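Ligand: arginine. Inputs:
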Amino acid sequence: MMDDWTNDRTYTWLMSTNTQNQTTIDPAATLDTRFKEAIHAAVPDLPQSQIQTHITASRQPKFGDFQSNCAMPIAKRFKMQPRELAAKIIEHLDVSGVAEPITDANIAGPGFINVTLLPDAISESLGAMDNKQLGIVVPDSPPTVVVDVCGVNLAKQMHVGHLRSTVIGDAIARLYERMGYKVIRQSHVGDWGLPIAMVVEQLITIEDAGEDLSSLTLSELNSMYKKVQAACKAETKALELIQRVGGHAKAEIELNERIADANASLEKAKSRLVALQSGDERSVQVWQRIYDITMNACLSTCKRLHTKITDEHSAGESTYRDELAPLVQDLIDRKIAIEDEGALVVQCDGIKEPTIIRKRDGGFLYATTDLAAIKRRVSKLGGDIVVYCVDSRQSLHFKQVFAAAHKAGYDKTQAGNDATLVHAMFGTVLGDDNKPLKSRSGENLNLTDLLDEAVARASATVAEKNPDMSESDRADISEAVAMAAVKYADLSTERIKDYVMNFDRMLAFEGDTGPYLLYAVVRIRSIFRKANELNIDLSNIESAPFNLNEPSEKALALMLLRYPSLIKNAGQSCEPNRLCSFVYDLASAYSAFFDKCPVLKNNDEQVRASRLRLCDLTGRVLTDALDTLGIPTVERM
Ligand code: ARG
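Predicted complex:
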């Protein structure tokens, strides 16, 4: 009778819902729900939306598995005695089927409530999680998420900033995919406007002078880009200075000449832009060449980095060119845009700086294109959520554009709701000197050079550890290890923060690094290879009952159970670093388990089967989590 009742409660516990109305198998989430109910019953005056359970994993096993620190803040607010309040909460608390009964003896210190889970509840939850989805429940009608990723600029090589928009952006997209949402990646390529027209103009000039440009590379284009930028930049500031403080007459004449040259180049570029915009055949042809050269290189780097960003995701600024004039007209007609000193601006509540959408000379801006992009992403692509994985230095831009889009109603979804627009911003990659990472010559560090360097270094370590490995295996594994190292280093810091890029640290096979995590998976897989060699029967492993008597087994089980809610939290907050911490904690919990609990050497068949099943589940969760981060695992290393 008692057993039936327990099972029944366990069942409802497994099916209990958390705040997002999803089935959960995470005991912490279940406790959260139960504590919320108890707090509500104990303190009816506390609005339900403000109830916080503050449930955390206990630091020491003697305090149980979890503790709730809810009593102290509520007691303070309602001028109660915290231990008395804790006692009142546990009077209303129903933990049947989840945890051991809670009594006054479980109240510790100023009012912590300690909870010890029922061993059966843990193993049953773990069994329920052990399926193909690893316990992650896909919503019935999943929202659509558009993720702005990569966003390279034409005629420029990818630099280390694009590493972040590519790697973090793709990981955010993968997190949403893993949650079962519909995901659309969009790369807002900077492929339009005056800077590009300058390069087009330059290429045409060179070609007209008889030079053969058929084998032009991106690196050559990149130098050309810098040169034309400099050539078009009038040194008016320097001239002003000379005129003010006085200088050599010859210097002034020279400077004047240079300014005249710059102005002439700029004028040429401007007329080239007009030609390009009106579809002049030669201009478009040259532009297309620049586009192809840039995007071929960019997409091959995206592939090398194991992202899912491909050609179909390129939605460059040029694709909005015909939408800008009608959009601006719409904003004028509806009096959302107003004239300000000849320019056209949108003024939004709470933002001091007006958003300029048309310059005095009639040109459109970065913000104008981004407004058109929001409109397309929400109303055409059906985005309910639009996430921008872009440098934090663009935060004002996105604040302005989001507010202006909202004012204009461009963020209305097909269902008539306001889409959620998120700037998932990231900080800067720094060098050892704590300054933005630069190459030796002081330029932005080229991403390909950086990746090649990581591979060269990884190759040395892999060779050292596997002296007999064939050259081609070593090349493959070094490439995988290097990409894992670079990506994990980038993903595992809080994205908002700047971080220092350090090859030695990120390539280490020990510690919180990509290679260590790949190695953890390799080690788990090798157990099964060994089991096969020892002729251990693995056929019933999938249904072996979990036996969690050792503290390290239980700790590993509790860690595994966190996976489904972790994916959801990391996804919804667009914070892949949370998933990284989890992967590292799981690998550490596994390693503690492996040290304490013999697996293959254990002669008790049931214990061995349970441990093998734990190993298998851990291996699958680690692989799935790394895949969600965009880090493929390897068989050996
Ligand atoms: N091309 C831009 C840059 O390199 C990034 C584009 C970001 N996305 C956007 N929708 N504005 O700074």
